[in-house]
Amino acid sequence: MKAVATCIAQKWADGSQQQVVSQDTMANDQAMDVYVPGQQPPNGAAAVVRPSYSGKGTWVGFRANGGAGSDATGAISGCL
């Protein structure tokens, strides 16, 4: 799970040359929000990275807010 979140953050940071904010939402890095470059907690656009609800693995969603678009979601799919 943490590897997926780190991958997304790295792709966004490299692509934008901007700082990317990650925020733990559960203890022990079990769930994270990775904010799109230029977005800030708590309501900014973010990749929502969680443990899978049905067995092993990682579930990733995208919370849109404002100007985040296909560039952001493309990086997510590249990390799965």
TrEMBL record:
Domain of life: Bacteria
Name of the molecule in the record: Uncharacterized protein
